[in-house]
């Protein structure tokens, strides 16, 4: 389990690199892919931001069902922002 969390954290950090162009060419599609991988492995902050991406239609089409799903996965892990997300 600890190994999976470390892998998810590394994937989340790769997302930041690609999103900001830190050490690699800026690529939002690649950033989103790493983001999703980290979220699927249980990284709470990645799950929250994935929910936000779906809620706001950033990189992906707006999808409030997906947004709620990812917020709902992040909240029990202690992600306070996920406990009361703003979904229109």
Description:
- This protein has 88 residues and is an all-alpha fold.
- The protein contains 5 helices and no strands.
- It has helices at residues 2-20, 28-40, 44-56, 64-74, 80-83.
- Helix 1 runs antiparallel to helix 2 (28-40) and helix 2 packs across helix 3.
- The protein is flat.
- The chain starts with a helix and ends in a 5-residue tail after the last helix.
- The model has no long low-confidence stretch (mean pLDDT 83).
Residue windows where pLDDT falls under 50 for at least 5 positions:
none
Residue-averaged pLDDT: 83
| Number of alpha- plus pi-helical segments | 5
Assign an overall shape.
flat
The helical percent reads 55-70%
Question: What is the beta-strand fraction?
Answer: under 5%
State the separation between the terminal residues, measured CA to CA: 35 Å
Which secondary-structure class do the elements indicate? mainly alpha
Question: What is the total tally of β strands?
Answer: 0
Report the major sheet: none
Helix-strand sequence: HHHHH
Gyration radius, rounded? 13 Å
Describe what is shown at a glance.
With 88 residues, this protein is mainly α.
Give descriptors for this structure.
single chain, mainly alpha
Please give the structural blueprint.
Blueprint: H1 2-20, H2 28-40, H3 44-56, H4 64-74, H5 80-83
Helix pairs in contact: 1-2, 2-3, 3-4
């Amino acid at each position: 389990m600890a190994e999976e969390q470390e892998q998810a954290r590394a994937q989340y950090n790769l997302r930041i690199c690609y999103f900001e162009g830190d050490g690699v060419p800026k690529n939002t599609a690649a950033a989103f892919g790493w983001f999703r991988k980290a979220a699927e492995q249980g990284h709470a902050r990645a799950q929250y931001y994935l929910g936000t991406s779906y809620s706001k239609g950033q990189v992906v089409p707006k999808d409030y069902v997906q947004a709620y799903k990812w917020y709902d996965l992040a909240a029990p892990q202690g992600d306070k922002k996920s406990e009361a997300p703003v979904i229109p």
